[in-house]
């Protein structure tokens, strides 16, 4: 492309991007008439029935029909897309599929606004939170912002009660089935996502708080990053080999995966996995289990608390380091039809250049997905390596395994935990997982957009179930040893679940002496 034409194209693309952002934001202010909103309700339900392979797992068809019909009867006046979202999403959440959720419509920001925000520190994201009932607490303040002490309860934000927000937002989320532990973990992580989606990116907030009976007001502002902050960020973004293998997370300056020995003789190995991201995981496990084998460790602790899941291939590979014999991780993944894998809205959210590239790649995508399904006994299934017999890795760990789980262990974490428990390969310690024991619907998504409100509805395409004897409890994976930490444990930096494991190992060691 000639240089002059390139700059003309770049200018056109930049202007069109700004226009599309402004157009989208204007659409969010428009109130849609009831008949158009009801069309969106019908569209959403029709796409769910068409694409979701286990829609009536936790709710009877007649009950879900009633929920959608009742919703339409409540739509009697024009609503903005955001107002409509807060009416439709609770019905979607009532299906009790943790992966199934509308994307909240929020104001889009321009590239200029993004650059401005990148030059400022987060206002709410720099704290760690804890939800207990309808109450929100700060349990971490790494930067000592205004010296707000951990344990402080946030009562109001800009004179609006936090408990009102929590009651409102809780209706928007669901775990898999009738799980009882997932909500507080997920809610503490998404509370301010919902809040910002409603309020926008503001530069100031007034917090009314209470700490040890004393009420206090804090004025939070979005601080500008210093030269040192920007320099440190730039340095942190450099991808060293260590950062790659341990999957460095620049946002909070931490690693997704960590490994260490907990004692001097290396008899206890510990692996912490925050999410099954898949990035460089194969190399991490190869190096880690090589070290464990060389050290001759007798005990292994795998910590997947607060791990919302991720790559199925990663947990299949990890399981190869734990299984003493050939295994099959999951059962064949069911889909609703042979064409389900291509109903993914392939061209969604693409700019002009991406659209051109995707158009060129589409034939490969189409044929790859078309031949990815097969039919057996009148049902359609998606081909997956994880449903084939796998061999143990040559460095597979043969000692005793403990796995730490809690309500924040979801999706792939639950599949991994359920398989370990079924095979009696590990002692599970902690809380019931947030994801279901008998599987979930996810894999990849069919991205639908409601025609009038333009709200996105990603629908899981694959029914993914661990290769186990199902419990049919419609709940999470229940630990062998039930221990639930408290907020006070977090504030005191205590870990009762880990303490129990260490004491149990010490008992076993003493018996062997």
From TrEMBL:
Superkingdom: Bacteria
GO molecular function: endopeptidase activity; serine-type peptidase activity
Span of the signal peptide: none
SMART domains assigned to the protein according to its UniProt record, in alphabetical order: TSPc
Domain Tail specific protease residues, every copy: 238-484
Family matches, as SUPFAM superfamilies: ClpP/crotonase
GO biological process: proteolysis
Name of the protein described by the UniProt record: S41 family peptidase
